[in-house]
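=== RUN LOG ===
request id: a7f3
mode: sequence -> structure
chains: 1
length: 682
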Amino acid sequence: MERDHTAVEIRFLNRELSWIEFNRRVLDEALDPSQPLLERLKFLSIFSTNLDEFFMIRVSGLQEQIEANPDSLSLDGYSPAAQVQLISERLRPMLQMQSRCLTHDILPGLEQVGVRIVRHSELSEEQRCRLRMYYDERVFPVLTPLSVDPSHPFPYISNISLNLGILLTPGENDSEAEPRFARVKIPPNVPRLVPVGSDHTFILLEDLIAAHIGSLFPRRRILECRPFRITRDADIEIEEDEADDLLRTVEQQLRKRRFGFGVRLEVAGEMSPLMLDFLTRPLELSAHDVYSIEGPLNIPDLMALYKLDLPDLKDKPHEPTVPDVLKNAETILDAIRNQDILLHHPYESFRPVIEFVRAAAIDPRVLAIKQTLYRLGPNSPIIEYLVEAAERGKQVAVLVELKARFDEENNILWARRLERAGVHVIYGILGLKTHSKMTLIVREEGNTLRRYVHLGTGNYNPTTAKIYTDFGLLTANPDFSADCSELFNHMTGYSGQDTYRKLLVAPLNLRSHMVRMIRRETLHHLAGRPAAIFAKMNALTDPELIDEFYTASQHGLPIDLLVRGICCLKPGVKDLSETIRVGSIVGRFLEHSRVFRFVNGGDEEIYLGSADLMSRNLDRRLEVTFPIEDPAIKNRIRREALELPFADNVKLRWLCPDGTYRRADCNGSPFDSQASLAASMD
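=== RESULT ===
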C-alpha cells in the first residue's frame, strides 16, 4: 500500500489501524482457551459491537472523505481510499478467526455441557411440529416479504438489522426466467434463539423462518435463502449555530441516521454471486465492502446464552465493596465533610454515588443540586432522585449532553422527564460536547452554606460502573467546591469564567497545562531532580501532545503510558521515543479511568479526569481534570492505577514501534492486575 513518504510517516501510527489492533486484543480474549466459555462468547460479542460502531462512524467518515477530499492524508501519510483498503485487509483474517472460534471452539464446547444451537434439519418430527406451531402463531404474523420487480423498487434495509435474502422464480412454473430477489427482515421483537424444548437447545430464528419461507411465497419456487446484514453511516452532524432548538434538531438527525449510506455488507458464506449482485448494486457497495461470514451473523444476539444459569461457564461474580469510612458514618455527607473519599469502580461500589444524590434529594437542608449527565443507561435511579429533589422544592440544574453518541435517544427521554418535574435542563455549550463528570450539592449548615462535590472519570451509569474501571472523588474541599460552582455558572449562564483554582478545564486551559507540566518534568530531569511521567488513558491521538512526549523523551525523560485503545504515538524509536513505553490492558473490566502522574522533582502531582489526550477532548469538549491532594489517596491511585498494571504479566501487552502488540514477559508467577485488585477488595 503506497503512501506519501514524508517525515511525518515515522512519527505517528495510523489511528484507524491502531483501533483495529485494540479490537484484536479484544478478540484475543475470546481466543484464550483458559477463559470460561461464556466469557469467550462475551468477548466475541464485544468485538462485533465494536466493529459495528467503527464502521458506522470511522469507516463512513473515510468514505465521505473519499468523495469530498480524496487527496487528504492521515498523520501517517495514507489517503482515505488507502485507509479503507487497509482496514479491509486487516479485518478479514480477524473475522475468520472470530467465526472459527465461535463455530469450532465455543459452540462445540457449549454442546459438551448441554447447550446446543441446532439446525432445523437436525430436529425430530415432533420438534418440527412444535416449532411449526410457534412459527405460525408468533413469527409468521410479523413477517413482511418485500420483492423487487419493475413495480417494486429495492426496499430500504435498516441499519444493522438481520435479514433474509431470497431468490425465487418470477412465476409458479417459470423456472427459466430471470430470478427475482425478495427480502424478509428478521423481526427484532422475537427472540433470536428459539427454544426447541425444555432443555438448553435452541434454533436460530432465521433458520426457522428459512425452513418455512415457502409460506411467504406460496406460488413461487425458492431458489436460495441466505441471511445478510447492512451497516450504514450513523454519524450525526449538527450545525448548532443554525439550530434554534437543539432537542428537536437532535431528534431530526436521529431519524436521518436510519437512512445513512451503506458502508458494509455482511453475508452468509454460502451466498451465491447472483444474490450478492442483487444486494450490492442497489446499495452501491463494492467488493471490499462485502464481508462473507462463516457461521451466524450478528453474534451479540447469542449473548442470550450468557443469561442461562451456568455459573461454571462464567467468571466468578465480583461483589464491589463499600469503603469503611462510609459504612461507619451516620450520613454520607458527614463522611465527606470529614475527609476526601476515593472510589475505585468496579472494585468499589457505585452505590455511594447514588446515595450522594439520594441523600441530597431528601435532606431538608440541601438547597441545590447541580449535575452533568453524559451517559446514564436505562432505569437510572439518579434521575428519580433529581426529580424527587425538584418536587421537594430544591433548585436542581442538570446539563444533559444530547450529543452523546448512540445514547442520544435515552438522553432526550431523560431530559424531558426532568423538565416535566421542574428541573432546569441545559443542553450544553454551543460548539462543545459536555463530557465532564460533576455533581455539586449546596447545603445550609448553621449560618453558612457548605458545598459537596463528586468528580469522576466515568459516567453516572450504574450498569457500566460494574464493568468499567473508573475513579470518583467525593470532597468538600472549598477550592474544589468554588471551582465547580463557577464552572456550572459558566455552563448554564455563559459567565465567561476561564480560570480556576484547582480544576483544569478543556477547552480553556487543560491543553496548555498539560504542555507546561510535560516541559516542567523535562527541566527537572535535565537538572538531575527526580522526574518521570506516568499516564493512563483510553486513547492518545493528539499530535501536539505526542510531539511534546517525543521532545521530552529525546531529553531522556522516562515516560510510561497505559493506553487501552488507540495510540498514535510510536514508542521505542531511536532518537525519537527511546524512553517511552506504552502498555495496554484488555481484561475482564474495561479500563476507562484517566490518570496523570508527574514526579515533579519529588513534589509528586496526580490528576484524575474525564479527558483522553485526543484533539476532540482537549479542544471541542468541556472536560474536567482535577488534582489529588490527600497523600493517602495519592498512594492508592499510584499503586492501583499505575504500579499494579505495569506489573501485570497476564493481560498487559506492550506496543511495538510498528503498531503491533506483544504480550508482557511472564517471568515467575502469573499476575493479573485486575484479578489482584478485585481479590484485595473482596
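=== NOTES ===
The chain is about 35% helix and 20% strand.
The first strand starts at residue 116 and ends at 118.
=== END ===
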